[in-house]
């Protein structure tokens, strides 16, 4: 049997091949188990739970590069579900938490190598009377439908609502921490959402009234039919707690004299209200938060994104960071 010469080229090649395979065996496992970088949106209440929870609406996460190019999930409108580890290259990003895309609803986050940047969320909630227990004379019945808005240049911009979630008695919405206008029963109240907490909106009752055309108004000069809420004559209506005006028509002398009376009224909060802590969740390797993480986009930054976003036809000539290829 022929013995191989250690200097034989064939033997040398085999040794080189073995060395390559050995190095590969050592390197590949380390690559396979390398921690990925990206963004993780905290759920507190998982999308799977809200799917079977009447009145509950989780948000979607919309992710964009520093220059505003959308990083789509490939599903639906391109948003990502809370609780997903969204793999991203290290860099700066904008994240929107809501039901649809809005440049006014973006917050800044930085992604670092080998760690997941945590995007916190909070919830707002409310419970109301079942329809069978509500009054209905001279007014309209209501549900626990909630709508969250941002106030942008004096105008309301819709962020998320639970109108399709069977809101007969209970409603809850997921939002990024910050300040919002929350609408319940056609009236709005200002709410501050805190990370990791549910905020039970303070509510109370007003009515009944026995005067005609009675309306609850936020502002004394509001047009009743457009901005007011009819007050029932057979029971109290459920509204956000706070200061209002009650507008009534006072009829005297069998209708000969009709006066409009507008008086201030305070709706006092009743029942459960305020903040409560939620169960938290997160990735296995979270990144320590940067001071800029979670900061809302500014007017000047919005202008920049708007200008860049008009170049729809040039997206194919950009890499995922929005830079020319």
Short overview:
The chain is mainly beta and 325 residues long. 14% of the residues lie in helices and 37% in strands. The protein has 4 helices and 22 strands.
Structure characteristics:
about 35% strand, elongated, disordered N terminus, disordered C terminus, 4 helices
Number of strands: 22
**Structural class of the helix and strand makeup?**
mainly beta
* Overall pLDDT score: 85
Question: What is the general shape?
Answer: elongated
**Distance from first to last alpha carbon:** 60 Å
Order of helices and strands: HEHEEEEEEEEEEEEEEEHEEEEEEH
Instruction: Write out the strand line-up for the largest beta sheet, numbering strands in chain order.
Output: 2-11-8-14-21
How big is the Rg? 29 Å
Strand content: 35-45%
Please describe what this structure looks like:
- With 325 residues, the chain is mainly β.
- Among the domains are: 29 residues; 123 residues, no CATH class; 66 residues, no CATH class.
- It has four helices and 22 strands.
- The chain has a five-stranded mixed beta sheet with strand order 2-11-8-14-21. Strands 3-5-6-22 form a four-stranded antiparallel beta sheet, with no helix packed on it. It has a four-stranded antiparallel beta sheet with strand order 10-9-12-13, with no helix packed on it.
- The longest helix has 24 residues.
- It is elongated and about 85 Å long.
- The relative contact order is 0.16.
- The N terminus and C terminus are likely disordered.
